[in-house]
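Question (not urgent): is this output format expected?
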Amino acid sequence: MRYAVISDSHDNFYNLERTLEIITARGITRCFHLGDFCAPGFVRAMLARESFTWICVWGNVDGAKTKILLEQRNNPRFDISEEPFREIEVEGKKVFLSHFPLLARHAALTGEYAAAFYGDDHRKRVEVLKNGALLANPGELAGFATGQPSFGVWDPEHNTMELVDLRDFRVTR
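Got this back:
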């Protein structure tokens, strides 16, 4: 199974829709969001399609956290950490999620994690460290800062990250 890895969406509903179309076509149903959703309405849009499950961390620009938590408190498809990071296990691999690059880098350097994913700086990056850990930033879904909206697709079997540039895709109906 592959996983969508998304960060820094900053309320860009259009790019969310494009991303969900692409990952639906690829048969992906599990998503990591690394923070900076921004408003509660964006989280509602993430959850509008019932085929997706979201494992998330907060970013530094997420507003109305209490409202998001109250709205989604009983939603089994929205799992968000109270901390600025989280550890999960996926297909026997330990994974570290954080919005913040330094936390992710330090986690990856410990050798405890197969992969560490982060956002915040909006720059796409995939790096395999000397210890074999995958350290990756899927870039920004919003595309406002770099003009290069993107997300990642993680393959846990091979521990690789594909970066998907949204400029290459259009939503058609």
